[in-house]
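Annotated sample (chain length 249).
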Amino acid sequence: MSAEILLRGRGITRRWGGLIAVNQVSLELERGKVHAVIGTNGAGKSTLINILSGEIPPSEGEVELLGQDISRWTQPRRARAGLGRSYQRNTIYPSFTVLENCRLAAQARAPRPWRLWESAVKCEVSAPAARDAAARAGLTDLLERPAGSLSHGQKRQLEIAMCLATSPQVLLLDEPLAGMGPEETERMLALLVTLKRDHAILLVEHDMDAVFRIADTITVMVNGSVIASDTPGAVRANLQVQAAYLGGH
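Output written by the structure step:
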């Protein structure tokens, strides 16, 4: 069975003056797979994910989503086309409920400005999408809770729920496990296993135990360049990776 590639990056390069932050990086995200990108601080991971999501343009290279060149598309246009993104820092609305946060995300995907007198809560498009997204992220029992009152792990789940409310096919997740305890980490990993069935997932993460447990492919970056991209077992055994990143273990 041939792989279904949902997102491709070809020869992605980003220069900041004389600094090359990302250097000729190519990768493919496949439906049903988690593709992790690892590297020390300054390796170029955040710049790469910002290019893929449309926050910054590449100096060179192409980004392709669902077979279409989106290299010059804005971030909102990419989001509407099926690209979801979470951030290292929480981007929720603390005073709004879980449901309201999800509904706002769903409305951004399918705005209905002509329905001026329609109650947002009763919107036949965004309201069901919001409830479904919250359910998929394991937040059904917390719909009416203010987002600011959630635990750290629940807030990270909410961010993923807000992504899901936009009906993405590709998820770009930037350190979703940051700051989590063991129980919250296990809950998030279980959620990612469920989500990858229907999505292609790019995971940027520093928790190496979690990465090697959940990733199907691992790309290792050093100083903006890829030094290895392979299965977890092959990456762990790679002598160059051990010397540059894993400390020889």
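Annotation: The chain has two domains: 1-82+169-249, 90-167.
Annotation: The chain has a mean pLDDT of 90.
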